[in-house]
Amino acid sequence: MSVRILKGRMVAVVLLGVAAMLGSCMKGFLDMVPDNVPTLDHAFANRLEAEKYLFTCYSFLPQEGHPDKNPAFSGGDEAWTYWPMQEDYFFLDPYNIARGNQQKASPYMNYWDGYDGKSLWQGIRICNIFLENVGKVYDLQPYERDRWIAEAKFLKAYMHWYLFRMYGPIPIMDKNLPIDAPPAAMKVYRQPVDSVVNYIVQTLDDAAAGEALPMKITSVTTELGRVTKAAALAVKARVLVTAASPLFNGNNDFANFKNNNGQLLFNAQADDQKWVRAREACKAAIDMAAAAGLKLYYFNSAVVEVNNFTRTELNIRNAVGEKWNSELIWGNTSGGAPTYWLQTYACPQLDPNNFNIALKAKLAPPMKIAELFYTKNGVPITEDKTWDHANRFKLRTATTLDSGIQEGYKSVGLHFDREPRFYADIAFDGSKWYMRNGEFKVQSKSEQWAGKKQSRIYSITGYYTKKIVNWNLVFDKTSLTVESYPWPVIRLTDLYLLYAEALNETGDAANALRYLNMVRERAGLKSVESAWSTYSTNPAKYTSKAGLREIVHQERTIEMAFEGSRFWDLRRWKTAPQELSKAIYGWDIIQTTYEDYNRRVLLYSPQFIAPRDYFWPIAEGNLQINPNLVQNPGW
């Protein structure tokens, strides 16, 4: 496969090999009047044709495992890259968002009107057509019809949810307008936040009701990636945790945001019952996942014999990268090879004898992300009374006791005595990179095999996103084999952390700690209580709601790093203005010596402008077509 990607290239999405994009059907904003009525009789003439239509509904899901099609990868601060880029990309949109270049005339990553060949409103429209017509299929068994209806409802709810997270209050399109609808009916209003949330949740409840959706996928050769009852309930839990969070729950920044008919779109009064509702939804989803046999992933040492350090690392990495592993609740398979490009964008040159141009190494974590991970004692580097924070940029030499660093190699104190997730998630000059076919040494000073040699194929910060590279990736000078795994839209650990957050907000600290500690145990850390009591300069931090909230937020940021979570979490927590305005630093990667390379370099000073940047702008053309639409504040 060619690795040179031209600007603007559009990649067709096919789900399960059978759903084709309806590119010729793309219309303007919220064109809900079916223009393909003459073909509907054929589309629902029999089971085979109707199934194709169902898979077309799936095909409108964004490719969340693609680095240029999910804003949460390259549109925030978890991964930075060199600029400008002349090649090695599909779209520049997310990188422009990260650099503060979003615009309202022609918004970047505009899934409202169409991005990557997809308008989510068009996807919703297709789902509605399916639901209106699937009853006509004469040779469809009732149990199968019920399942397909539930899947289409889920997909319609998920697309509303995706738009809601991007744009805030949105119109609700539960049904398509009739073909003879007057033009005035097209001029829809945005609906209040609570109405949108209630609609999404009710639609997910409808999808999950009864026995229509399977508990788990049993036909692994033909149905993996399709929706289950656990997936529906898990997405519902995420929606309700988001709705209970400060961005949507009592947000005074949007207190005066209203439609042109005077209808308020945000409730400025915080409602604690929203956290109760979120807590109950999380528990129901966890119970359903357990009933379906899902459990936290642990690496099976019978596959390959490894030491304890590597086993813990593979517990962490393979919980994301192992295909259809035990904690995956719902995996996105859009695109056929959903994480191929993600892995090649992330992986550096690991072998001094085998340079492969397909390995880009361009998804580079900034230094501030490296500093977020705990020390080996399981507390923040700013709190650990045994860890030398003041001298974290001074060079040290690794010994046999430093499992994550090459023996005899010099690196800064920041890279020593860190928690297992630091070494599992991030690589750096002097680190080790374990793969199924052996252990590689990362050496990335200028002119070393992983270092900068040209205007591309290097890490701008000196860090690499190891976590998202499947350990089965194999390469030599002329070939590359990538095991593409389904992108984990939601996995069990994510759900545990959402539940812990809701538990703390509703006053149940004991159970919040219980779920936090299950996540920490798999990551090789002691309990929150033990770690803070023993090592923190603030030993009682976990005993207050505010203190435990801070711990939950950092635990989630670490555990879900590089999985598209931080981008949205910072917004819903309303900490984005502080976090996304922090400077982007990296190492002096053009240097050749230990001393010169390990100098901190300012790469960029981003600015998150609140409240404007919490939501995408609606393209100005849509506001002219529909005067009942109001623009998001700040745009």
Automatic annotation (TrEMBL):
**Compartment annotation:** Cell outer membrane
Extract the coiled-coil ranges from the record: none
PROSITE patterns documented for this protein = PROKAR_LIPOPROTEIN
Q: Which SUPFAM superfamilies match?
A: TPR-like
Task: Name the UniProt key words of this record, in alphabetical order.
Answer: Cell outer membrane, Membrane, Signal
Transmembrane feature ranges: none
Where mainly found? membrane
Q: Where's the SusD-like N-terminal domain?
A: 103-239
Per UniProt, residues of the RagB/SusD domain are: 339-635
**InterPro entries for this protein:** SusD-like_N, SusD_RagB_dom, TPR-like_helical_dom_sf
Query: What's this protein's family per the entry?
Result: Belongs to the SusD family.
The protein, known as: RagB/SusD family nutrient uptake outer membrane protein
According to its UniProt entry, this protein's organism is Chitinophaga caseinilytica
